[in-house]
Write a structure and sequence with these properties.
The chain is mainly beta. Strands 1, 4, 6, 8 and 10 form a five-stranded antiparallel β-sheet that branches. A five-stranded mixed β-sheet has the order 5-12-11-7-9, with no helix packed on it. A five-stranded mixed β-sheet has the order 14-22-21-16-18, with no helix packed on it. Strand 37 (413-418) and strand 38 (427-430) form a beta hairpin. It is elongated and about 125 Å long.
């Protein structure tokens, strides 16, 4: 059973996604300006008196934030279930409320079968697992409460295509029999033969066959994990020679690739050869880019790698970044070494260059494909944020592409937030491999509608205004006794009793004036 996160009675939470304010999905329509019990007009100004306390919950509200979620197969808290009273205002229950949840398209989106809103709590955040592209309607029901529905859109955000072929690549380009260092095979699922990699929709088992197991042995079966586009496995170079490896799976075009196993040489006029793993990279993949470096003289002779400090550079660090200098793990007699890189949030072509004293520099060109992050977007959840409580709700921050679709960030994306102190953290991180994150919001004082402004480097910025409903919590009294109802006039809060006392004094004064006027009027003669 997936766990849910509830707002505590004080308004705080343990885990917090974020989304824009949305209308509750069940009637009646909420009155976001409060539910007045009286209205008075004084010199053209209107004084509304909100009710002293929230009513009993009578209906449910469902919100999805954000409404479009990436089909990653990983649960994320993005569904918000809220209790509302008959006036459409956030309410709480004196006893726990069990909510039954359902999805009409489990193949697209799954939700827990039930969650519980604790006593004294007005809302709960529920994890949703999106498995595929499409629309799913989510439903919430509870005994004695009107049910609610909301629609979720699932999208595969990195590469919205389906695999039709397999691909094989070796790193390094040639192996040395019995040498240390990496001897890797990368298996990819591709949109077409020789095409771009695409995420697998489920765990994908592939059979590998070596034409000469006495030269190169490979695993019999390799599984590309769901929602990944490739996997890298170790193979073994046993003897000098060459072998061809074939990848087979029903329904996908097969792939073959040859590899040469060479003897180590003592040539000194070699250069660096670099192989990117994988050769074409999907932005946002959980596997970071790696580069296998080998010392070789042309295509025929491989050298034992001369261990030492490498100098590296990237033509496009916004797509793939590499360290400027690094001494990789290396032992005498190794034929190759591995250097790791990190994804940025750009897509496109990147050239990585490596240099090592005594060898000619080497280069490799890598293409990063996927959704490029263009801007950040912010929304508020749940449907009816409430001020006066310790927490007004959640802030959801998304990374989106130029068309407004969620875009998976390939590296941690730091988002700066400007706004009133204590309302939101000053910095929020969308973690690598995700397209959004959520944080709890703080308290919003009655009568205010603060605005948060979000920025992330050169990406387009965003802003969102917190527009909470009138507080359904009764205002506290200094003496700790029963709360006193108030009238609100702009920023002014006037206790109702003062209004009635003032009105009573005015009425008494008016009666006195009328009586005095009557007594002062001359008596008419008969």
């Amino acid at each position: 059973m997936l766990a849910a996160t509830a707002i505590t009675a004080g308004g705080a939470a343990a885990l917090w996604p974020s989304a824009s304010a949305q209308e509750p999905s069940a009637s009646p329509t909420p009155n976001t300006s409060g539910t007045p019990i009286a209205t008075a007009v004084i010199d053209g100004g209107t004084i509304d008196a909100p009710r002293a306390a929230a009513g009993a919950p009578v209906l449910l509200s469902l919100s999805i934030a954000p409404r479009t979620l990436p089909a990653t197969g990983q649960p994320r808290e993005a569904l918000f279930v809220q209790l509302l009273d008959a006036g459409g205002t956030s309410a709480t229950s004196a006893t726990p409320v069990t909510i039954r949840l359902a999805s009409n398209e489990p193949r697209i989106a799954n939700v827990p079968t039930s969650v519980t809103i604790a006593a004294g709590v007005g809302a709960v955040a529920v994890p949703v697992t999106v498995l595929a592209e499409g629309l799913a309607t989510l439903t919430a029901q509870a005994d004695g409460l009107a049910s609610a529905q909301t629609t979720l859109t699932g999208q595969i955000v990195s590469v919205p295509t389906h695999a039709t072929a397999l691909g094989i690549a070796f790193a390094p380009r040639t192996f040395i029999a019995g040498a240390g260092g990496p001897t890797w095979l990368t298996l990819s699922v591709l949109e077409a033969p020789e095409g771009n990699p695409v995420p697998a929709t489920a765990d994908t088992e592939v059979r590998l066959v070596s034409s000469r197991p006495s030269v190169v042995t490979v695993p019999a079966v390799v599984t590309v994990p769901a929602y990944e586009s490739s996997i890298t496995v170790d193979v073994t170079a046993l003897a000098q020679g060459s072998a061809t490896v074939t990848a087979l799976r029903s329904g996908l075009a097969s792939a073959t690739q040859s590899i040469a196993v060479l003897p180590a040489t003592s040539l000194v006029d070699g250069g660096l050869q670099i192989v990117a793993v994988p050769g074409t990279m999907v932005s946002g993949s959980s596997t970071q880019p790696r580069f296998v470096l080998q010392a070789a003289a042309g295509e025929e002779a491989a050298l034992a790698f001369p261990c030492g400090e490498l100098q590296l550079s990237s033509s496009r660090p916004g797509a793939i970044a590499v360290p400027d200098r690094i001494t990789p793990d290396c032992q005498p007699g190794w034929h190759a070494v591995v250097v790791g890189g990190t994804f940025g949030n750009e897509v496109g072509i990147t050239t990585v260059t490596a240099a090592l004293p005594g060898l000619q520099p080497g280069q490799v060109t890598v293409e990063t494909v996927g959704a490029s992050v263009a801007s950040v977007r912010a929304t508020i959840a749940p449907a009816m944020p409430m001020y006066g409580a310790d927490s007004v709700g959640w802030l959801i921050v998304e990374a989106v592409d130029a068309s407004g679709r969620p875009a998976t960030v390939a590296g941690d994306l730091e988002v700066s937030v400007a706004g009133p102190a204590g309302l939101s953290p000053e910095s929020i991180t969308i973690p690598r491999g995700s397209s959004s994150t959520i944080v709890p919001l703080g308290r919003v004082e009655p009568g205010s509608s603060p605005t948060l402004r979000l920025s992330a480097g050169a990406l387009d910025s965003a802003e969102v205004t917190v527009r909470p409903e009138r507080s359904s919590l009764p205002p506290a009294t200094a003496g700790g006794g029963a709360p006193a109802p108030v009238f609100e006039f702009g920023r002014w809060r006037v206790p109702v009793i003062w209004v009635f006392v003032t009105g009573a004094i005015a009425v008494v004064g008016l009666l006195v004036v009328i009586a005095w006027s009557a007594r002062a009027r001359p008596r008419e003669l008969d």
